[in-house]
């Protein structure tokens, strides 16, 4: 064995380290809101991997992703699950491009289909919650589409 050869990245990179690198790669290339959208599902996935003893990205395959998806399905609304899986697949494709996960892994994961009814929530936002959201948008996303829409609502 030649000790000057680098180790296989999929055998030495933890899911947590891969996530950090992924999030860093998104900063400056996509909107901040898009980067934030990737953070929670990938954090949930990394925690899931760590809880199950998945130590390297090379151990991540369709079975691990499918198990995470089934667990998330019990925790969140269908539309949230759909969005979480979409965002996770961007991370998985990035890992594939970095040779951290076997190429083609993302192709084996199905994004859940949801009905029009499942895409809409009939929950109301309490006044205090609305004020907190508006304060955040006023401070950090002033004049964004989300800010304008929320202000109008």
Automatic annotation (TrEMBL):
UniProt entry tagged with the keyword DNA-binding: yes
Domain Core-binding (CB) positions: 13-96
Protein name: Core-binding (CB) domain-containing protein
Gene Ontology MF term list: DNA binding
InterPro entries xref list: CB, DNA_brk_join_enz, Integrase_recombinase_N
PROSITE patterns: CB (PS51900)
The keyword Iron is assigned to this record: no
UniProt organism field: Halorubrum aquaticum
Keywords: DNA-binding
Annotated region described as Disordered, given as residue ranges: 1-27
